[in-house]
C-alpha cells in the first residue's frame, strides 16, 4: 500500500511540479511502469477515490503492460485479468472518459493476445450486446463495445504478442465479417428510426470508425461492401438533413458522425484501389451512390464562409480519392455508349467544376477549390496518354470545352486579395494562397496541354473581359478592379514555357495592353505581374525580336518602381535569352541601368542582379564602348572600396557596403565575357561580329582583345589585396571576395594566366590566415587548370602545399572535435577527390604526406555530419581507384587498407545513419577491384568477436564477407548487402541470410 501511495504522490508531483522536477519524476514513473509489479498496482491506482490524474496513470500503465510485457503474465492469470478489466470498465463506464478510453484499448489488447481462442471476439461482443456488464445502460455498453472493436486492428500493429503475426492476421480476417455485420446491423437499426437519441451518437461514431479500421481485413470483394457503404452514406444524409438548422451548422456530434463516416468511406475505397481493373462496374455504381447522396449537400453548402466547410472538404476528398484509385473506370464515360457510365462522368465533371469555382477567395472564404485542381491534371493525363486513334481524338474533343471553361474559372479564382479585404488575412493565409496560386499556374499548364493554341484564344477573351471591367471602373481608380486584369496576366505568365515561339497575335495584343496600362493608378502588384510576365516570355522575344522595344521599355520603367525586383529579374532573363537581338538597344539600356544604380534607390539584391544584366549587355557591344561603360558603371564600386581601405574603416556599416560592392562585381564577372558564342551563330564570322559590335580579328595573326574582366583585375588587384589585408579576419568579406575572384576565373579560364601570380599570392595569403571554403574552391580550380603548365608549376605547387598544410593543421588542432570544422573538411576532401581524379600525379610529384591525408579521411568519414562524411568517402574511393598507377599512392593504400575497412565497418555498424550507409559500397568495390588479394585479408577484420557490434553473429559476418568479396562491379548488389548488414549490426531487422 505504501508503494501505491508513493506512486500516487509521484504522479501528482509530475502534473503539478516544475519542468525540472517533471523530468526526473517522469523518468522514475517510466521505470515503475516497466516493472513486473505494475500488473498489480495499476488496479489500485484505478479506484474511484483517486484523483483523475492517478486513475489515468493506472490505465496507461495497464496499456503499457498489455502492449509490451504480456510474456510476464502467467497463463493461469488470463481469466482473472479479463474479469478485472471488465469490472473496471463497469466502474468507469460513465467516466472519466480519458480513463474509459484507455480501458477500452486495454480490452482490445487483451483480445489480440487471446486470438488463438477462435471465439474470443464473439464472446466479448455477445457479452456487451446482451447487456451482461453490471448496471451500465445498453447505450453505454454498445458505445464501449464499438470502441473496443474499433481499436483491435490498430493495436495489432504495435503489440508484442506470443502469437505469430501470420496467425494474428488470419484470425482478424476470419473475424472481420462478424465484426462488420455486428457494426452495420447496429448502425442500420439506429438509422431506421425517425430520430436518433443524443445518447446514441457516441456509439454510432465508434461504429463508423470501426468500419474504417476493419476494412483491410476479411478478404471481401468491394461489391460485397455495398451494404456497409449505403449505411455510411445514410448516416451522412441523416446528420445533414434530419432537421433545419437555424445557423446552418451541424451539431458537434452530428458533424463528427458525418466526418467519421466519410473517413471510413475513403478508407474503404483506398483499400481496393490496387485492384482497379476488377471493379470497373462496381465503382461506377458506388460513384453514382456518392453523387446521389453527397452532391445535394455540396450544393446546399455552395456559398462563402459556410459553417460546414470541413464536411464539404471531406466529401470532395472522397471523390478525389475515388478518382485517384479508379480513374480509368470513370473516365471511360468521356466517350461511351453506356448511359450510366457517361452520366457518372458528366456529373463528376460538373461537380468538380463547381468545386473549382467555389464562391469566395481561398483560403479565407472557402477551402474546397484546391481539391479539384488534382482532377484536371488527372483527366488530361488520362486522355493524352491514350493510344492515338479515333477514340483518343473523340475524348480529346470532348474535354476541350470543359478545359476552356476551367481556364476562365481559374483566372477568376487566382485574383489577389485586395487592400479592402486584407483585414481577413493573416500570414498563414497569405502563404496558403501563394501556394494555391502556384497550383493554379501548374493546372493552367495542364489546360494548355489539352487546349494547345486554343488556350491563347481563351486567355485573350479573358483579357478583353478584364480590360472591359477595368474601363467600367475607371471613374474609381482606387477601387479593386485591377485584380482580374492582374490574374489574367498571371495566367499568360504561367503558360509562357508552353507557348510556341512564333508570332501569336494574342501575345502581341498582351504586350500592347501591358505597355498601355496606367500603372500609377493601380496597385503596384499589377506592374509586378506585368514585369514578371515579360521576363517569362524572354525566349519568345528571342524569336520575335521586333517586339523587344516594348518589353525593354516596360522593364526599364519597372527599374524605378517598387517592383524593381521583377524588373531586374526580367532584364536578366531577357538579356540572357536575347543575347544577339538586344544589341540595337544595348547602349540606351546601359544608360538606364547606370541611372538607376547611381540614384541609389534600389535595394541591394536588385543592384546585384542588375549587374548581371550589365555584364550581358557589355558582352555584345563594341570594345571601345565596353571600356567607356566599365569606367562609368564599375569604377564607382572600386572607388568606394578604395575609400574604406584608405580610411581603414572596418565598421559594420562599411562591411555591409563592402560586401554589396563585391557581390555586384562578382555578378558582373559571371556574365561579362566577350568570347561568348551568341545564340544562332558560332561567333567567329566577320559579319556576325560586325553586327554585334564584337571585337573581330581580321586575320589569324591579329591578337585577340583582352577580356574586360582581366583589364579590371589588372587595375584593381592591388586594391583587392589591400582590402583582403584589412578584412582578413572577417569570414563574410573574405568569402565574398573569393567568390568574386572565382567568378572571374570561371569566365577567364586560360586568359587569367597574366594575373596568375598575383591571384595565387592573394589566395595564398587567405589560405594561410583564414581559409574560408570559397578560398579552397578557387585554389582547387587554379591547381586543376594550371598544374600541367610548366611555367606555372612552381606557383601551383606552392599553392597546393599551402592548402594541404593549412587543412592538416586545422584537423590536427581539432582532432577530438572535427565536427567543428565540418565545412572545411567537406571542401578539402571534395578538392582532393577532384585532384585524385584529374591530376593524381601531383601526389607523387609534390611533397605531400599522403599517408596523413588518407588517415584523416578515415577519421572524417566517421563524422555524424553527412556532407564531410560523403566527401571523405568519395575521396578515398577515387584515391584507391587511381592508386595502382602511382606507386606512392599505392603504397599508402596497402598500408592503410585495413584501417580504411575498420572505419568503414564502424560506420556501417552504427556511427553513420542507416539511411546513408549505402555510400560505403563504393569503398568495398574500389578495394575489391584494385586490390582483390589484400581485400580478402582485410575483410577478415570481421572475425574479431563483437566487431563491429555484438548483435551480428559470426555466421552473418561470414555470409556478408562472402557476398561482398564476390561482387567487383555490381554496385546495386553491394549497396543492398551493406544496407542489410547495417540493419543486423543495429539489431533492427533479421538478416535474411540469402
Q: What portion of residues is helical?
A: 55-70%
The major β-sheet equals:
none
Number of helices: 45
Oligomer: single chain
Uncertain residue ranges: 678-701, 989-994
Strand content: under 5%
What's the Cα radius of gyration?
37 Å
Give the overall form.
globular
- Topology, number of strands: 0
> Separation of termini?
55 Å
Question: Mind explaining what this structure looks like?
Answer:
The radius of gyration is 37 Å and the shape is globular. The chain is built from 45 helices and no strands. With 994 residues, it is mainly α. Among the domains are: 302-419 and 426-451; 462-601, no CATH class; 815-993, no CATH class. Interacts with UBC9, RAN, RBM8A, eIF-1A and PAX6. It is found in: Nucleus. One of its GO terms (molecular function) is small GTPase binding. Residues 25-91 form the Importin N-terminal domain.
